[in-house]
Amino acid sequence: MRNRTCYTGSRGSFDGRTPYGILPYGKAMGAAMRSCLGMELGLTISNPFLKQEDGTPIVNERRFTHTHVIGKSGVGKSTALERWAIDDILNGEAIAFFDPHGHSAAEILKHVPPDRRRDVIVFDPADRRFPIGFNPLHNIARERMPFVASSLVDSFRSLWASSWGPQLEQFLYNGIAALLEVPDGTLVGLKFLLTAPAYRRQVLSHVRDPLIRDFWASDFERHMPEREQRERTLSTLNKIGALIADPSLRNIIGQPKSRLRIADIFAGKILIVSLAQGELGIRKASLIGSLLLSQIHLGALSNSRPFHLYIDECHQFGAETLVEMLSGIRKFNVSLVLAHQYLDQLSPALRSALLGTVGTTVAFRVGTSDADVLAREFGLNKEHPALEQLAPHTALSRNGGTHHLVMPQTDAPSYPKVSAIRAHSRHRYARPAGDVEARLAAFMNRLDSAPKRRPNKKLLWR
């Protein structure tokens, strides 16, 4: 077991004191000491088949081999993820929580203690007045650029899988690889790289990779007539244009400087990613989540401090990136908790990785077809009905042994001033939307008035 500092009111010997005052011993001990034992999955409940007693805490000491959570809608998955994440926050851990609905984000924020308020980053694209700048092209070391370009292409592939092709991949990879070398390059620049010769030449004046330069200067510009350029890039432009037409997305990925630094998150921050699909739409929420995930993957490769990543509805975010993370980031002290509703939501590769490599599985009530598959994971007879008949907020867990668990509600005190957390996050990481839009308008004006045939240093996004 890892040596970790337990959260207490005084960060010393525990006497029941918390930032909220002195709590009853049992409740305070639950909030303060649970994480010292590890990730407590839940409490055992009577199950004659498993020959277990009531009330024994089951601690996930294998959390760095990752946790797979599966179950139908409304059975308690999200509530379990919230409680585990809150425990980590109370223990002073660094975490990121991806919430595709917005409800879990609001619940977790209510339980952030005052002395961790300044650790919180609320990434909420629905907050259109104060967009957080997130530029996945910003400040990438040269040796990491090919990895980042490939990861970002994977994010787009997961979004456009049904219409993916080699030409789309070629334009995206070479475009992203070129913009990575440009000061203040952003993903919004992909559109102008394809359509504005003066901007393209200015970008190429910064590109040192000979193959990327050759693609744009020779294959695309010199040997492809303008009509052919338009025809070949039409599909790519339609897809990019549909994304950046939405100001809520454009104002996030169009800010040249990332105030959201992934290295800071690994150093002890609490990143709450609220991707309310009802406001953003599934495609845009999926893209933003996938782009963030690719950057977290990059940051994980140089991490040493314990870090915990929770993703609800994980199938919606960068399946290829998740497969790579499941197989490769344990040694970097990063744990994944990935939740979804049923196995057919997963890509074949992600399904295989979750069933074959994770150290812990937590199964709430599932359908018949999933129960047949999972029964083997839990050492149950195929005909055993346990997985189809579990009550809400109960689950079977497998992490060295099989246990029947109840998932208690969090016993951490709630703190009402969530608005103060959001205000600090806005001040530290966001900009007023009007400022961002004014800079974009100035960039567009420079582009419209630029000479068509020679590089212009003023074209870079400032």
UniProtKB/TrEMBL annotation:
Q: Which Gene3D superfamilies would you find in this protein's record? A: P-loop containing nucleotide triphosphate hydrolases (3.40.50.300)
Q: Which InterPro entries match?
A: P-loop_NTPase, T4SS_component
Xref: CDD domains? TrwB_TraG_TraD_VirD4
> What name has this protein been given in UniProt?
Type IV secretion system coupling protein TraD DNA-binding domain-containing protein
Native source species? Candidatus Defluviicoccus seviourii
